[in-house]
Write the structure tokens for this entry.
Amino acid sequence: MVTIYDIAQKANVSAMTVSKVINNTGRISEETRRKVKKVMEELNYIPNSNARSLVLQQTQILSLLITDITNPFYTSLARGAEDGAKQYGYRLLFGNSDEDYVKEKDYVDMILSTRVDGVLFAPAGDLSLKNLEKLRAHNIPFVIMDRAVPGIESDMICGDSKEGARKLVDYLIGLGHRRIALVNGSLDVSTARLRYEGYAEALALQGIPLDETLIIHQNYRDYHADDHLEQLLEQPSPPTAIFAANNVLAVGVIRDLRERGIRVPEDISVVCFDDLDLSSALDPFLTVAAQPAYQFGAMGIQLLVERIRGSSVPESRKVILPSELVIRSSAKPI
Amino acid sequence: MVTIYDIAQKANVSAMTVSKVINNTGRISEETRRKVKKVMEELNYIPNSNARSLVLQQTQILSLLITDITNPFYTSLARGAEDGAKQYGYRLLFGNSDEDYVKEKDYVDMILSTRVDGVLFAPAGDLSLKNLEKLRAHNIPFVIMDRAVPGIESDMICGDSKEGARKLVDYLIGLGHRRIALVNGSLDVSTARLRYEGYAEALALQGIPLDETLIIHQNYRDYHADDHLEQLLEQPSPPTAIFAANNVLAVGVIRDLRERGIRVPEDISVVCFDDLDLSSALDPFLTVAAQPAYQFGAMGIQLLVERIRGSSVPESRKVILPSELVIRSSAKPI
DNA sequence: TATTTTAAAGTTACCGATAACTCATTATAC
DNA sequence: GTATAATGAGTTATCGGTAACTTTAAAATA
């Protein structure tokens, strides 16, 4: 590999002069600058960012940790983050925790070892606390994405899970539904708790009693609710509508329903949090509370970079991005 | 940040001893090892991989460059690559070129600057040649994913675009279609050329003349074919079926058709290359030639790591992964 | 007891860049 | 014509590790 010393030798200057040309620092005569640049091109010089990071104590790398790379919400978020990072001149190191605390921990160690300048962190859940504390202990700035973690104060970009859930359930109630099931994420994830609360509040406001037998808790990522669903449907008074707490769960539920010969929305209505992008473009079917995923990523980077650069950002900032009720055809009046 | 020198001092040994403990090299007494390890834990030591990379001349980072992070084919591929990388002990640096040669070039520079050990490279198209040559000039091993680039010999994982296209078109012909349109990617992408060839061959074999007015070329990623589609549909003898060269194009086409009040498959049949994952789970509608995307990524990493480690891998290896015709309901007999 | 061997730990130089400083020249001022 | 300033370039030390070699001390052998 070509180094600044190779350049220096061939251009008959010192390494320092080359460095100055590269970084546009110090005083360099036009003539020397041209000469050095010419040699750099001839030799196809590419700076070694490891060496650079070592002395500068910064890498110009940001890390993005998400929990499910096949979930369109997170890929859109990733795209927003990527565009943002590029715009601010950072490289982006992706990680995918698969909603798994151990994988998440491994990524945190890697992040620390890479000495990234900051992290966009979508926690797997409440137990991410330890991993976040580790980042904090090492003074790595981070912005928490999508899910709050009790015990950690930090910059944060979240959706309005509670409000979004309420809107969805309100909508179902407006259609005449009274027996509304909730297929929720695991309760150690803040969004699942809030969506549950929104669900409960919407029911309470309409005087509909909360029925725990209508509620299933699941991992957001792996849907296999067969047994639970069975239970749900074979009640004396089964639900007429299902609120799935995210897109992946909704797809799983609908698939399972269809396998049982139950039609959506004719036999049962289904709505969920988060949109499906391509699916919805192909077939505007699912009624959803859509979140501005791209913006999550873009704004997250913005907060993060401000935090990294700005000494003037005192307390932690929380951004709540609204979700939008998109009514399509997966829910019908009872 | 804590360094090995801090550890060394507190443990009353030399830095070299600490290094040896970390890497399990050299001779270290059990006692010293324990002492050093204890101090490392106390101080929360995390090795600086930049410093390490600098002397070792290798980073344990692989890079994955894809062309569209919102396309499920590539996200599944990414997941395979991620799992593979983890398994072999590498970190993974993602990049997303958006089918754009300039973005691609920027990523190549970043890759070079990061001194990654190898690259999984899904080229934007034929003009990626320059970018690949740059990698080669710098001796970075790479495996080309999905799309061949004329002028570059290298390890490669591809699908069987031609055969898959032929199967799809054969299927349409079998349903009685004779006027079959092709909404293709840009012809400077190898898969688009091969899918075109497969399409043409399938027609030829059945003695159906190729009609250039039935063919549209487009960017794989941004569908906005309004004008073209208009032209297609307002022919004296419009197509009864459309073969879209990838999933994103198919979704775009179907959306546009619906906006015009044209029903799929009642009024026109549509099939495409690549599956839609979540969409298809939600609603098994699109008939597709599905590629094993996860395997693309996993095998790509395998080839790459073998190339990096193995001195014994002589000429370049090409893996062709078959695609599977998945018949659903977006195409009907004429 | 003297010598060799071996185990365990330490020294030194270097990876490729940059910060901070120093050193020549030349230009400007008095 | 000397003092001072401005300009352009070079020296040196350092970032945090590791390879290759050396040193030290204890154990094994003669």
Notes: Chain A is about 45% helix and 15% strand. Residues 72-88 of chain A form the longest helix (17 residues). Residues 13-17, 20, 26-29, 32, 51, 53-57 of chain A lie near DNA strand D (CB under 10 Å from a C1').
